[in-house]
Amino acid sequence: MSAIEQHLPTAASHDVHAHILDLVPRGARVLDLGCGNGALMAALQQQRDCTGYGVEIDDANVLACVQRGVQVIQLNLDEGLTMFEDASFDVVLQIGTLQHLRNAEVMLRETARVGRIGIVAFPNFAHWPNRLAVLRGRMPVTKALPYEWYNTPNIRVGTYADFEVLAHKNGLRVLDAFGLQDGRMRRFWPNGLASTAVFKFDRG
């Protein structure tokens, strides 16, 4: 797998991080998969008294994590999480990571195995501007999906509704779910009105 990029484009990442902070219990032990430059994990440490690790493959991002004071493990997520025992973390995060993974379904199950709670966030391809772009015969280019089809680091796209189906298929219990658009939470028709999907779940 190529190096996992930053969680999300800069503006979108700040919006998402603010809401993720609210979902993580104070003092939780956290594993942040595809942690990018460690900004989210650093915020969890400083604002929520959390401990734990980031997981990242890119050399520059690993260095950035260290400079932020974030403990980081350099690991290719497509190789799995066999180094971690069941329920060894309170929360496992996949924020802007799922769409980069070749083994996305396996990693989702691993997230639920390693953490008591899993939280994922990813670009929602069913957001109405994306639908309109496809109707016009073009792949969408937006804040949440800022790349052209030929240079995107995303190897898959999915929707809010797709994840609901995937969670059910894998026996996961959704504890909370909402969309995010321009920094605001969207609970009414998030599949169409939100550019980012957020799910909190456990093994049920």
- CATH topology name, in short, is Rossmann fold
Strand content: 15-25%
DSSP helix fraction: 25-40%
The CATH class name reads Alpha Beta
Oligomer: single chain
CATH architecture heading: 3-Layer(aba) Sandwich
Name given to the CATH homologous superfamily: Vaccinia Virus protein VP39
Report the strand count: 8
Cross-sheet strand order for the largest sheet: 3-2-1-4-5-8-6-7
> How would you spell out the order of helices and strands?
HEHEHEEHEHHEEHE
Computed Rg: 16 Å
**What's the helix count?**
7
Q: Kindly report how far apart the N and C termini lie.
A: 31 Å
Mean pLDDT: 91
Structure description:
This protein is α/β, with parallel strands linked by helices and 204 residues long. It has one domain (10-202): 3-Layer(aba) Sandwich (Rossmann fold), CATH 3.40.50. It is 33% helix and 24% strand. It is built from 7 helices and 8 strands, in the order αβαβαββαβααββαβ. The protein has an 8-stranded mixed sheet with strand order 3-2-1-4-5-8-6-7, sandwiched between helices. The longest helix has 14 residues, at 10-23. The two termini are 31 Å apart.
